[in-house]
Design brief:
This protein is 31% helix and 25% strand. By secondary structure, the protein is an alpha/beta fold. The chain is globular and about 65 Å long.
Length: 507
């Protein structure tokens, strides 16, 4: 018996999902999941196939995801901020056979659906109707409420991460036994079956989606914010007595930056675990959260590929500033040099995680990229770190070029590929520079072609035409020449270093 069926039997009247004024009990959620899963089966959706979810946070998105997993298929969340070209690439690269779409994204879907040769069905989730699409209400009405043979585990998914070679990669996350995650969730104080979990961030990000999935695997109520607003989050916490949430540092910063009078209007005493990750969290924000909510702040280091790898609890939050914690239960870490040799305490090197029964099942159709993460029994996503004598980990740089802005991964290669198409640009180097609100912002260093003229505004606008807005450079510098090594390869760190001078870390 899968988790949804089990909790529908154990406490049928308890709320499973709440979104605004909408709610489904476990009994109602179970029946709706079954109906939608049977309807998807009637559309010949098969185990192992990929289904894209392209809609704002909602009860319907969680229901669609649960139904897709129930037939053994993999949900593929689509980033809302992508351009039509980027959406078309993911639909095609993922070999998606079905797409759930919200009203806000129908204009892009209409433009690109013909570019996805394996796409058989589009299912609408909002008020809009289209002759070439089904509506979720139609499927719910047609599907049988009879039990489905859903997988007993959490079910898998595929989350697209920005690509080091200029294109996103589909990180496949295998179906896992909920028991395998329990030790890490226990360390994050998120395992009480009576917990009420608040989904604050967008479900297309791996962490908000994963924590919502874990909450349901444990029989907890999930409260969904359609879009994050700091005061709306406080209102939801008070109204539903939320006990746990995951937030990227940017969202926490928006909470603590609310005026004291606004913060004072809401009772947040129900919160027992606020989990932060996805980017370094400023100490000012940590201190403010602890002072306001009490000792409920937990931090972890992890990734879409490797899951939760470290945990930092509230007792160590101020004692170990800048640390992301010690190895999570069941996880073995190592700091290795370029030759794969372990480094002593205090020496920075590439952070590796020993292979375990985790979530990563490789990059879809990209064996070479999958292999790049592996070194024998160790896996890495390219972060540079050091470890102190107590085993606390400190992330200090990224071996690969990834930028993290507001908790969102951005790979410079994708932006550089666009810049190289500009007729006035000879060469380009993109990297992250410090930003007080977002952690990092995108900077483009540009070398114009001889005799060509181009402005920073023109460069940024050119990027916005070809990329999602959050990937476009926020600033541009111009260089007559670029630093290169003896082989002629661009030495990007020379361009990047002045922006980070005087800082203890480079992330």
């Amino acid at each position: 018996m899968d988790a949804i069926a089990r909790y529908a039997e154990l406490h049928p009247a308890a709320p499973a999902v709440i979104e605004g004024e909408r709610r489904l009990s476990w009994h109602e959620y179970h029946l709706a999941r079954n109906r939608l899963a049977h309807a998807l089966g009637d559309l010949d959706l098969a185990a192992g196939e990929h289904v894209v979810l392209y809609a704002h946070n909602s009860l319907d998105v969680l229901l669609a995801s649960a139904a897709v997993r129930a037939v053994g298929a993999l949900p593929v969340p689509m980033n809302h901020r992508l351009t039509a070209d980027e959406v078309a690439y993911i639909l095609d690269d993922s070999d998606a056979v079905a797409l759930f779409a919200g009203d806000a994204f129908l204009p892009i879907v209409e433009r690109v659906r013909a570019q996805a040769p394996r796409l058989r069905h589009v299912v609408l989730l909002g008020a809009e109707r289209r002759p070439w699409a089904r509506h979720v209400d139609e499927l719910l009405a047609a599907g049988s409420p009879a039990p489905v043979a859903a997988p007993a585990g959490l079910g898998g998914s595929m989350v697209y991460t920005a690509g080091t070679t200029g294109k996103p990669k589909g990180a496949r996350r295998r179906a896992t036994d909920p028991a395998a995650m329990l030790p890490r969730l226990t360390a994050l104080h998120c395992v009480d079956p009576h917990d009420v979990h608040l989904v604050a961030g967008p479900l297309y990000h791996s962490a908000p989606g994963a924590f919502a999935l874990y909450a349901h695997a444990l029989g907890q109520t999930v409260v969904v914010l359609r879009k994050f607003d700091a005061e709306d989050a406080l209102r939801a916490i008070e109204r539903h007595r939320c006990t746990t949430t995951f937030m990227a540092p940017t969202l926490l910063k928006r909470l603590v930056d609310l005026p004291a009078a606004v913060r004072g209007r809401y009772d947040v005493s129900s919160m027992r675990s606020i989990v932060v990750a996805a980017a370094p969290c400023p100490m000012r924000v940590k201190e403010a959260v602890l002072a306001w909510f009490g000792p409920v702040l937990y931090e972890f280091y992890g990734s879409t590929e490797l899951g939760v790898n470290t945990v930092l609890g509230p007792d160590d939050m101020l004692r170990k500033p800048q640390s992301c914690g010690r190895a999570a239960p069941g996880v073995e870490l190592a700091i290795l040099d370029d030759a794969g040799r372990p480094l002593p305490s205090g020496r920075p090197g590439e952070l590796h995680v020993r292979r375990y029964d985790g979530v990563f099942d490789g990059y879809y159709k990209n064996a070479a990229a999958t292999q790049e993460t592996a070194r024998g029994e160790w896996l890495s996503v390219g972060d540079v770190a050091w470890m102190d004598d107590e085993g606390f980990v400190y992330i200090c740089d990224r071996k690969r070029d990834m930028i993290i802005s507001g908790g969102v991964n951005i790979y410079p290669a994708e932006i550089e590929d666009v810049l190289h198409r500009h007729p006035a640009i000879e060469d380009a180097a993109v990297f992250g520079v410090p930003d007080a609100e977002w952690g990092e912002r995108v900077h483009a260093a540009v070398q114009p072609r001889p005799g060509a003229a181009v402005t920073a505004a023109e460069v940024m606008e050119f990027c916005r035409r070809h990329l999602a807005d959050y990937k476009a450079p926020r600033e541009v510098s111009f260089h007559a020449d670029f630093p290169r090594d003896t082989a002629g390869k661009l030495v990007k760190r020379v361009l990047r270093e002045p922006h980070w001078a005087g800082r203890a870390t480079r992330v």
